[in-house]
Each structure stands twice: as C-alpha cells, then as structure tokens.
Amino acid sequence: MVRRNGQIAIQKNIKLLKENPEKVGGDKDTAKELIELLENISADQAWIAAHAMAGLSIQKALETLNSMRL
Length: 70
Hints:
- The protein is mostly helical.
- It is built from four helices and no strands.
- The two termini are 20 Å apart.
C-alpha cells in the first residue's frame, strides 16, 4: 500500500512539473531535470522520495533527492 501511494505521489508530481513548473517554484529547465530523476526512481523508493520533497521548491527537491542518491 505504501509503495503504491509513493508511486501515485511521484506521478502527480511529474504531472504538475510538466504542466506548471512555476507553480512549484522553478523553471522549465530545472523541472525537466527533476522529472528525469523522478521517472527513474524505483517503486520501492517512491514513497521516501515523495515525502522527502514534499513542500520543497524544485531546486530544493533536486538537492534533497540527489543527496539521498535515489
């Protein structure tokens, strides 16, 4: 269940980043980089990644996820 919730959260984040990156504090180039990272996160790590980046700007989310080496 937790695994599926993480995957759903990642999919929603990707959709938001594609549609309106400015809404989450970033630009299209930075959003593209974060989308690529999110698309490569395994299902087992999706929940952790979704919670680690919750409420962060695109740049801070990138920094957080990269520091976690997901």
